[in-house]
Amino acid sequence: MSDTPQAGPVPQDTQTLTTDEKATAGPPQAEGGKKKAARSASLWSDAWYDLRRRPMFIFSLILIAILLVMSFWPSLFTSIDPLDARTCELSTARQGPSPGHLFGRDSQGCDVYARTIYGAKNSIIIGVTTTVITALVGGLLGLIAGTRGGLTDTITSRITEVFFAIPAILGALLITATFRGADLGIWLVVIALSVLAWPMTFRIMRAAVLTARGQDFVLAARALGAGQSRIMFKHLLPNAVAPVIVVATINLGVFIAAEAALSFLGVGVQSPDISWGLMIADARARFLEAPLPLVFPAVFLSVTVLAFIMMGDAVRDALDPKLR
C-alpha cells in the first residue's frame, strides 16, 4: 500500500483567501497601468509629469513667482516709494547700509533697496512683452511659410536672412536712438528688441513644421480632404510648437539682459523710470567709492536671467524625449 498522500479538496477558507488575494492584487495593477497610460497619453501631460520632479524647474519657478509678485506689488516688499522725490536726501548720498535702508543709498540719496524692488517691474514687462510678440509673429510666419512652401517660403526666408545680418545690439541702439524723441517710454525698447528677435522664432517654427509636414498623420488628413487651414492649426501647430516654447522661455531672460544693456548705454529706460540697467549705469562712475548701488541691482538682474534660463533648460529637457 503506497504511503504517498492523496490530494484532497482544498479547504473552503483557503479557497476564499486565494480568491480574495487575487481580487485584491488585480485592481491596483490595473489602476497603476491606467495611471501610467494616462500620464503618457500626450507629450504635454508626460512633460508636466517630468517637470514636477525636476528640482531645477521647481527652484526656478519659485524664483520667477517671487519676481512677478515683486514686480506688480512692490509695496509688499518695501514701504518706501522711490518715485517720490521726497524720499531721497542728498545729505545721505552714498551712505552704507543702515536701519531701514538695507542696501544703503545711491548718489542721489535714494534708497537702493526700494529702487531695486521697483526696478523689477520695467525689466519683467519688457522681457515678457518682447517674448510674447516675437513668439506670435515669428511663430505665425514660420507656420505659414513651412505649411505653404513655394514662393511664400522663399520670400519670408530671404527677409529673415536680412534681419539676421543686422547685429542685435547695434540694431537696437540704432532704433532706440532714432525714435528716442517719440516719447514711447519702455515700449520703444520692446519694439526695438521685437523687430530684431522674431527671425529666430521664425526659423525654429519653420523647421519644426517642415519636419511634421511629411508625417503620416498629415498625409492622412490631406487624403481625407482636410483643408490647409485645418491642417495648419489642427495638426501641424500642436506638433511644432514645443521647440518654440522652449526658445521663448530661454529668450525671456535674454531680453531682460538686453534691456539692461540698452539702459546701461543710455538708450533704454530713461529717468524718472527705474530699471536695473539704468541703476547700474548711474552707479558705475562711483563704484569704487560706493559699490552697493551697483552690486545689488546687478545681483537681482543676474538671478532673474538665471531663473528664466534654468526654466527654459528644464522645459527643453522635458519636451525632448531624447534627453529623458
Note down, in words, how this protein is organized:
The protein has 324 residues and is an all-alpha fold. Helices cover 70% and strands 0% of the residues. It is built from twelve helices and no strands. Helix 3 crosses helix 12. It is elongated. It starts with 11 loop residues before the first helix and ends in a 5-residue tail after the last helix. The model is unreliable at 1-40 (pLDDT under 50).
Please indicate the percent range of residues in DSSP E strands (runs of 2 or more).
under 5%
Give, in order, the helices and strands.
HHHHHHHHHHHH
Rg on CA atoms, Å:
29 Å
Total number of β-strand segments? 0
Gross morphology: elongated
Q: Compute the number of helices.
A: 12
Mean pLDDT across all amino acids:
79
Question: How can the largest sheet be summarized?
Answer: none
Distance between the termini: 67 Å
Low-confidence stretches: 1-40
Would you tell me the structural class of the helices and strands? mainly alpha
- Helicity range of the residues? 55-70%
Q: Secondary structure elements and their pairing?
A:
Blueprint: H1 12-39, H2 43-51, H3 55-72, H4 112-148, H5 150-164, H6 168-178, H7 186-213, H8 216-223, H9 228-240, H10 242-264, H11 276-283, H12 292-319
Helix pairs in contact: 2-12, 3-4, 3-12, 4-5, 4-7, 4-9, 4-10, 4-12, 5-7, 6-7, 7-9, 7-10, 8-9, 10-11, 10-12, 11-12
